[in-house]
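To: structure subgroup
Subject: Chain for Friday's discussion

All,

I'm putting the inputs and outputs inline so they're searchable in the archive.
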Amino acid sequence: MNESEKKSNGWLPILGGLLLIAVLFAGIKLIFAGLEQVLPKQVPADRGSSVSVSLPDAGTETDAPDFCMFCGKELPETFQWGQFCPYCGKEVA
């Protein structure tokens, strides 16, 4: 009789472990679903529009530099602040 009890006892911890894993997985899913409902969603700012707003218009060529501050070479007429120097590659800001 001891042999039959040992055989049936072997499956009980395995089934209990699998059931525990399933319950923990479902509990974590429920916790994150509840947090998603409670916490407000943060919308990231659109970086493309903020960059275009911060750059001056092409009509204000007097604000843009004539020469690169780093390499000293003359910049193109269409150069604007915040762009990279076509010669040395550093940002002229």
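Points worth raising on Friday:
The helical segments are 2-38, 47-54.
The radius of gyration is 33 Å.

D.
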